[in-house]
TrEMBL record:
It comes from the Bacteria. Pfam families: GST_C (PF00043), GST_N (PF02798). This is Glutathione S-transferase. CDD domains: GST_C_8 (cd03207), GST_N_GTT1_like (cd03046). Gene3D superfamilies: 1.20.1050.10, Glutaredoxin.
């Protein structure tokens, strides 16, 4: 049997859960390389050669190594355009699509981490994301406009955001606003989310340890 060209280094109790959702939505053949945090498998020389930060998700596609959630999302959705999960390069929604993916990495993640660790906010004029409340409200305002980030059509950005909001609201570091919970329900009802969740529940039952980044 031919080994799939795509390999996801994965632990279901980590951010790589969102990448598995996208892989399922794309309908592509992929392999899972399970990472056991308690065994220190993100700190081995072999793994650090792929991702020096020792973080998940890490994706290997042939000879290419792709790290960082947003980079992986953009890469996969563009690499497999037949799934229709990313606006084409010349589509009017391409810019907004990239905006909301970048907003996740540049604004949402650092704001949420600072908030979770109760770090004092810095002067908004020098903060890369202004402040936590503004980040959350900006996202809530966007999601109140339509079913999905770009309107009525679900994209890879929604699969990413829906998974992230499910985690962060469950952890209590993002408020369970009605607009967020309704969005999570819509995105997580997607067949790919359901399949990935079922697969990851089975995998998680075989792994010790708490959730990690």
């Amino acid at each position: 049997m031919t080994t799939p060209a795509l390999t996801l280094y994965h632990n279901p109790k980590s951010r790589s859960a969102g990448t598995r959702v996208l892989l399922e939505a794309l309908g592509v053949d992929y392999a899972i390389k399970t990472i056991d945090f308690t065994a220190g498998e993100t700190r081995t020389p072999e793994f650090l050669a792929l991702n020096p930060l020792g973080k998940l998700p890490t994706l290997v596609h042939g000879d290419a190594v792709v790290t960082e959630q947003v980079a992986i999302t953009i890469y996969l959705a563009d690499r497999f355009p037949e799934a229709g999960l990313a606006p084409a390069f010349d589509h009017p929604q391409r810019g907004p699509y990239l905006r909301w993916l970048a907003y996740y990495a540049a604004c949402f993640e650092p704001a949420v981490v600072d908030h979770a660790f109760k770090r004092e906010p810095i002067e908004p004029s020098t903060s890369p994301y202004r402040d936590y409340d503004t980040v959350i409200q900006t996202l809530a305002d966007q999601l109140a406009r339509a079913d999905y980030l770009l309107g009525d059509t679900l994209t890879a950005a929604d699969l990413h955001w829906g998974t992230a909001l499910k985690w962060t609201t469950n952890f209590g570091i993002v408020p369970k606003l009605p607009v967020f919970m309704a969005y999570i329900d819509r995105v997580c009802a997607h067949p790919a989310c359901v399949r990935a969740s079922e697969l990851d529940e089975k995998l998680a039952a075989t792994l010790p340890g708490p959730a990690q980044a």
